[in-house]
Hints:
The protein contains 8 helices and 7 strands; from the N terminus they run H-E-E-H-H-H-H-E-E-E-H-H-H-E-E. By secondary structure, the chain is an alpha+beta fold. It is globular, with a radius of gyration of 17 Å. The mean pLDDT is 90.
Amino acid sequence: MKLPIFKYHPDPLATGAVKRSDVVCECCGQARGFVYTSHLYCAEEVEAICPWCIADGSAAEKFRGMFCDDSPLIEAGLSEDIIDEVCHRTPCFNSWQQQVWLSCCNDACEFHGDVPAAELVGMDNEAVATAFQGGRLSLSQVEKLKRYYRPGGNPAIYKWVCRHCGKVQYDDDCA
């Protein structure tokens, strides 16, 4: 079975936001072979949602919830349609702190998951310092980060790509 297309999260299997599972979706009552691995922020404790109920908005509507915080998107001045799509019809990702969905060119960016270690190592030190924590990293911190970083670890470093200009952005998160 082919997964639904999420324009702001193009490969939720690769990022780990969706995994193969025979669990029954609490929204549609079907076992479709895949399940969402992160959270739906709502009053109820929802354990299993299929990607199709995310894509069509039925999970967010049924449980009156959101998949990610809309504040960064509102602050960026994005349209209500974009905010609705990201927060109610796009799988989010697991993070150490509150998720922050990045934007560029008056649109939400695509989420591409954890930065591969080789990509981080290949970045020059200034680019690393600028990309993470707003340039507040010292040279020694940058060198340590490049040496010890592992995708899926702490700190987490996420990759975002603008759907319009192709600019790559990074966001860091740690426990």
